[in-house]
Design goal:
This protein has about 240 residues and is an alpha/beta fold. Helices cover about 30% and strands about 20% of the residues.
Length: about 240
Amino acid sequence: MRLILIRHGDPDYTIDGLTEKGEREVALLAKRAKGWEVDDVYTSPLGRAKATAAPCLAAWHKEATVLDWLQEFFFPDADEHGWLPIPWDFYPADWTGDDENFCEDKWLNLPHLAPAGPRYRMTCAALDDFLKGYGYEREGRMYRVREHSEKTVVCFCHFGISMILLSHLLNISAETLLHGFFLPPTSVTILNTEERRGDEAYFRVERFGDCAHLIAGGEPVSPSGYFTTIFQEKPLKE
């Protein structure tokens, strides 16, 4: 089975849509993806994800199924002072001192992150139920192949939720992924199941945050959600 995660285009969060740059990005993405052999397509219920999916769906002559659990990850504030939208973007000293942040799901034991627990577990359960529908049943840190699948499945979603899904599939702390990696707008992340012995399966990353379509089209990679100044001031020339 092949699972493709695509982040939405450069966002205009004020309207839950895309900027003009985002529109150019998704056009280039659709041009790249036109020849892909895609079986099933899913999208977050949020507007920016749907707008990113639309040109690809037109190229594939397909419709997408909306999955609520693919919307951007957030969780309520433990002190009921409103909403703490995201469990990332912390400064280094605010998260690296806690060993739990580097241990699979132990980051949820920290008081300021514990409120994310219910949503995290719900998301992981939804992902496992989703994969079970394709023949892959979670067992510990791996999957059992109940029915082999050759399908290519595409999910249009967001940076944060993609990292949450990857943390579960790869058994890596979400905090480590969220703070140590970046998925640019319209980037493509591909995972395939490795099935080398009996009914054992593990999802392995083939590509991560791939923006080949933007580079080929001469469109700068957006730094939306990225805070490294050199990325913005001195983009890599290729």
